[in-house]
Amino acid sequence: MKIQLQEPLSKECIQQLRAIKDTMELLSGKWKIQIIGTLLRGGTMRFMELKRTLNGIAPKKLSNDLQELELNKLITRTVKDTKPITVEYSLTKHGKTLDNLIVEIIDWGLNHRKEIIQK
Amino acid sequence: MKIQLQEPLSKECIQQLRAIKDTMELLSGKWKIQIIGTLLRGGTMRFMELKRTLNGIAPKKLSNDLQELELNKLITRTVKDTKPITVEYSLTKHGKTLDNLIVEIIDWGLNHRKEIIQK
DNA sequence: TTTAATAGTTTCCTAAAGGAAATTAGTATC
DNA sequence: GATACTAATTTCCTTTAGGAAACTATTAAA
């Protein structure tokens, strides 16, 4: 019988696991990446514009997700003093840094579908 | 009053949204990326080895997630005919293509933590 | 004055994710 | 014969995610 001693994980490794957790908690769920991707394409958009483009999202969900993304400094929310009030959402500089990651996610997903289906 | 006509999303855009969905469904959850990341570092590993390294995972969860990853051709499961049975898990070639993506996720997460905390 | 658009919030419900603890079954050591 | 290690599976439970529908409040057009 072999007793396997466990080396404790290195600090670097623990940091990396935490980084994965941070990123995935932010991006997990059905809508968040779609919201960010839509804003990447569309620039500044209003609530109803987002709601229409993200076909099928419930207003509660959109509202909640936007709040969470704002808390994390990925988007800004600006209330315009127009006649019927309008609210504009756009990505922050920090939010735009998700561009590369989203491209990777898309590329991997496209390739994965090929891999799974045709073999 | 302006009526905003909606152009239907382009085929390319629909494909991209589907690719995001595919990738995120596969990687979402508390443990899957950690399992893949661990196998990327550790090469071939046994069930109990994984369980010890992924500090805190319930055996049921590990078992379920491994099955799901195997179904998606990201890992292989090999039963060894040893005295107490051993089972080895390792990444497929396809599974290893997640390397880049995971690096991006880690890098973004590290940077995000700086961005949020110190400002 | 009814209708519609603005941007949400509230309530209620279902489904999925995930954890804890016990169990299984084969083999091997004490 | 009791204990322990292998790799799970089973049962039960709580938490979280997310959807549907109704509602609020303001403004403006028909």
TrEMBL record, chains A, B:
Entry's Gene Ontology molecular function annotations: DNA binding
Keyword rRNA-binding: no
InterPro entries tied to this protein: HTH_HxlR (IPR002577), WH-like_DNA-bd_sf (IPR036388), WH_DNA-bd_sf (IPR036390)
Keywords assigned by UniProt, alphabetized: DNA-binding, Transcription, Transcription regulation
PROSITE patterns: HTH_HXLR (PS51118)
Ranges of residues in domain HTH hxlR-type: 13-117
Keyword Isomerase among UniProt keywords: no
Organism domain of life: Bacteria
A family per Pfam: HxlR
Name used for this protein in its record: HxlR family transcriptional regulator
Species this protein is from: Aquimarina atlantica
